Amino acid sequence: MKQDATRNAAYTVDCEDYVHVVEFNPFESGDSGNLIAYGGNNFVVIGTCTFQEEEADIEGIQYKTLRTFHHGVRVDGIAWSPETRLNSLPPVIKFCTSAADMKIRLFTSDLQGKNEYKVLEGHTDFINGLVFDPKEGQEIASVSDDHTCRIWNLEGIQTAHFLLHSPGMSVCWHPEESFKLMVAEKNGTIRFYDLLAQQAILSLESEQIPLMSAHWCLKNTFKVGAVAGNDWLIWDITRSSYPQDKRPVHMDRACLFRWSTINENLFATTGYPGKMASQFQIHHLGHPQPILVGSVAVGSGLSWHRTLPLCAIGGDHKLLFWVTEM
């Protein structure tokens, strides 16, 4: 691999806690700054960040914390609601978390006096993925080691419940057709469900285990990507239920897979923390080698910026950001 592809983070932000998970808001929130949420052992922090790539008068990154929410238990996952608005009066911040106590918490804040959260209980093991329905934001889907995928309304009532054959690792909602849901299982099966009929309509097979993470490409919903074992895998669901492309990438087993939000050929993967560091890679389907390789002392979480070819990862008391070319 070319030496110049390996590089340190372009930007870092110091945090008061170890960062377990980080998520850029994938939805337009009506403000020039980009909302970002990160979770640690006790807190969820909501902030805005603007990068020099988008505003010429900024040097590097401009970051500002909007609010810190006491969480009381380790944050394992964060999902943004499309109802979040910074340009409304008062503003609306809405997101949910999954936590080490197997509960989902739904937070709502106006960044002033109103800060509420509701607890959604039902999972009996660790929650590995959660997501809001992207159209209306009125439902949350979650998958867990308890071999279930559950759909909840914002009152905390379960409106649907799918039994899986193995732990549920990832869940994604179709960006336009909100009755379609993708669920990836650790045994290598990825199923698409019709939420109106409440049944599976299509499935993909990775032929490799354990499948740790999968993601639906929102720029081209015929594409699905995942990591299983040491490899990344890409499917074209119009062609085959087996991967169209795959490549070994991480020595210590791959951990997360995320498509870029702006380019259907760009995606990122992370490896499990090895003896020294977790490896982070950005790949382009037109290139045989990763186009960027980074390393994080103890990295966790992975999220793409909504409008830039830029990735965030959580680390030891810091957020790290990598930028690549299109």
TrEMBL record:
GO terms for cellular component: kinetochore; nuclear pore outer ring. It holds the Pfam family WD40. Keywords: Cell cycle, Cell division, Centromere, Chromosome, Chromosome partition, Kinetochore, Mitosis, mRNA transport, Nuclear pore complex, Nucleus, Protein transport, Repeat, Translocation, Transport, WD repeat. It is found in: Chromosome, Centromere, Kinetochore; Nucleus, Nuclear pore complex. SMART domains: WD40. InterPro entries: NUP37 (IPR037626), WD40/YVTN_repeat-like_dom_sf (IPR015943), WD40_repeat_CS (IPR019775), WD40_repeat_dom_sf (IPR036322), WD40_rpt (IPR001680). This is Nucleoporin Nup37. It comes from Lipotes vexillifer (Yangtze river dolphin).
